[in-house]
Design a protein that fits this description.
about 230 residues; binds zinc ion; 4-stranded parallel sheet; Rossmann fold; alpha/beta; 8 helices; 6 strands; globular; 2 domains; two-stranded antiparallel sheet
Length: about 230
């Protein structure tokens, strides 16, 4: 049962009161934000980066201020499901607005390093993918992409090194589901330079996918569109 299931939420609230995705204040069992945070939500969809092999990309928030902390919690298993659900709802609205939501056949998360996944006990991209897929009423496909178990920390690499690294570390899973002619929504927690998304999209295209769209909860602050 997905944690956004209304029956689960209602019962979970009795044991541990539901809390605001941003400030942690206790809120109604079926809400995602308190009124103050709702009124004061950081700007959404205000940054983008060109991603090869993709037809479009949307990131909900800029990776700065409280979003850095929320992404950290999402990675390390903090109880931030309301944040993941909030991102899924915002992305669902955006994709519907752009006529992309109906085109999507499957949601695929960018795979994470297996050692990290074991250590953390969960995979934040999968958590997000499940919320987004539920929002769109589409399936999640975990059979297509694999990631090598190297220990390189992406944030230590230059943009060029990231590109090469991403191309080396992700690969197609043998025995994946048939995605020929399908439109895929690729999803990750944070987009920095777009190299990871681009490398994964290239693999999915090689598998026969017709079109790839990319989404993430956050995008590096360096990709904020500057007003002239
Ligand atoms: Zn709040």
């Amino acid at each position: 049962m997905l944690v956004r299931d209304k029956r689960y939420k209602f019962l979970a609230d009795i044991i541990m009161p539901n809390s605001c995705a941003f400030c942690g204040k206790v809120i109604r069992w079926d809400a995602l934000l308190c009124q103050d945070c709702e009124n004061d939500l950081p700007e959404t969809f205000c940054a983008s980066v060109a991603i090869g092999n993709c037809s479009g990309m949307w990131s909900v928030f800029v990776y700065e201020n409280e979003i850095i902390d929320l992404i950290y919690k999402l990675k390390h298993g903090g109880s931030v499901y309301n944040f993941a659900e909030l991102c899924a709802v915002k992305l669902g609205e955006k994709l519907a607005e752009n006529g992309v939501a109906d085109k999507i056949d499957a949601v695929i998360p960018v795979p994470m390093n297996i050692r990290k996944r074991i250590r953390r006990g969960h995979d934040q991209a999968v958590v997000l993918a499940k919320f987004i897929a539920d929002e769109l009423g589409k399936p999640v496909d975990l059979t297509c992409l694999c990631r090598g178990s190297d220990s390189t920390e992406q944030h230590t690499l230059s943009a060029e090194e990231r590109d090469t690294h991403a191309k080396e570390v992700y690969f197609a899973n043998e025995g994946h589901t048939d995605i020929k002619g399908k439109t895929i929504l690729l999803c990750d927690d944070v987009i920095t330079t777009g190299s990871t998304m681009s490398a994964c999209a290239a693999i999915l295209k090689d598998m026969g996918a017709k079109e790839i769209y990319c989404v993430s909860a956050a995008i590096a602050a360096s990709n904020v569109e500057k007003e002239e």
